[in-house]
Amino acid sequence: MKKLCVVMASIVTLTLVATTLYIVETSSNSIYHIFYLLLALLNTVILYVSMTTTESEEHQDYVTLEQIAFKDALTSLLNRRAVDNFIDKIIARCERDDSKFAILYLDMDNFKSINDTLGHDVGDSVLVGVAKRLRNLVRGNDVVGRVGGDEFVIILDEINESSLAFITAERVIQSFKKPLNVNGHRISVSFSIGISIYPDNGVYRLSLFKAADIAMYQAKENGKNGYKFYTNELDDRVKKSRAMNVALEQALVEEQFVLKYQPRVNFNNCTIQEAEALIRWNRPGKGLVAPSEFIPHAEKSHVILSIGAWVINEVCRQCRVFCEQNRPTQISMNISLMQLKDPDFVSVVKKAIDTHHIDATLIALEMSESYLMQEAEEVIPVLHKLRALGVKLAVDEFGKGYSSMGYMKRLPVDTIKIDKSLINEILINEKDKELVAAITALGHVMNMSVVAEGVEIDKHLQMSRLLHIDSAQGFYLAQPLEADELHAFYETCNEKIS
């Protein structure tokens, strides 16, 4: 439209000039001459102003488009494209000057849970608040960018040594110890930070980003809310870790996981059938792999959610089979802290129970005392939701860590499983024997059943009965069995506990 106006003004101006020249040649009236000359001059001025204004507006449009192209729309930080361009320029300069710069790659911890629990609007506001706080932490010549949904970078220009990167990472960690106030919510934010240095860890942008990403991945595996500098050794470790992730995901697809069932004997009623489901990995070329060799790794990544969902579904399926055989069996299984913190976990459990049409009381979920106490405030609401489904809840490895009586009263727990380290000492250490007796009494006062874990000899079994423990499991009673071997075990278990 603007260009059309300029064209029209140009046509009118040329027409007036031509008319003026014609009148000058054919008319002797000077008034006409002056009038048309003034009119032509006026239109020429209008044409010039129109062209100047159009050029100015077009320049402003170009500036606006450039800002859109290089700015993150939500946070106004540099976007990935702008960050890439900036790094390329720094690399060219540092190559000439023989200087250094650092990339800090920041990944927010548990951002998904903020979106899931509070909504995406709050999540967006959190990102804006994070961006503002990060900008205030860096020097004037440093750059902050947002390169992904919850991923940020800080580029430290002109550093003499890596200590500045260390100081900046520490400042980020310390700064976010103070929660963000967003729409009436106090939201805690933390980061896993990976750091790479030019030219020590790479001379190209992609290699520097890869190094920072590897370091960030290790920081996350180390427990999050921390930072890690890239090293060659770290690269090897992360490659192995990622290879294990791929292998575990492939194991799920190819159905390489199997469940074994370790029976639990009830001293008060031998007709009750109880067992704990224990996962094994039937890895091609390596045979059965114990959970201690892969579960700790899976718990450091989201693979544990997929493995855990498979276990829950398989346990419910097996419960259905036992019920159809007229020998209902309560089956327990271990769940990780990451599963408890997963917003979809309760739905996963309910879906498995509904799919296989089983009584929810036949399912028991075991949680380690150590993380249950550390994260009690966060997981207690989840435990109540699980309890509302009808499933049973147990505290595993009790006595191995630290328990708060205040939390124990609030936990909707049905069973305490005394850690095997205590059971193994009850014959040789009087204090451990007294402690086991006290735990058992405490459990009974709180209407919880008590299980002795790790019963490996007959005297462990007999002492457990003398201390009024309700149930026991361990290698003395039975190794983990195939599902179809459980029935035969329970038919003969009286011989061992009599």
How would you explain this protein's 3D organization?
- This protein is of the alpha/beta class.
- It contains 20 helices and 16 strands.
- The protein folds into 3 domains: 68 residues; 151 residues, Alpha-Beta Plaits (2-Layer Sandwich), CATH 3.30.70; 248 residues, TIM Barrel (Alpha-Beta Barrel).
- The strands form 3 sheets. Strands 8-9-11-12-13-14-15-16 form an 8-stranded mixed β-barrel, surrounded by 5 helices.
- Strand 2 and strand 3 form a beta hairpin.
- Helix 1 packs antiparallel against helix 2, helix 4 packs across helix 5 and helix 10 runs parallel beside helix 12.
- It is elongated.
- 34% of the residues are buried.
Features:
498 residues; TIM Barrel; 8-stranded mixed beta barrel; alpha/beta; 5-stranded mixed sheet; single chain; Alpha-Beta Plaits; 3 domains; 18% strand; elongated; 16 strands
Structural category:
alpha/beta
Q: Mean pLDDT, rounded to whole units?
A: 86
> How much is the radius of gyration in Å?
35 Å
* Overall helicity: 40-55%
Taking the sheet with the most strands, its summary is:
8 strands, mixed, barrel
Strand order of the largest sheet: 8-9-11-12-13-14-15-16
| Oligomeric status | single chain
The number of distinct β-strands equals 16
- CATH homology superfamily name of the largest domain: EAL domain
First CA to last CA: what distance? Answer: 98 Å
Give the overall form: elongated
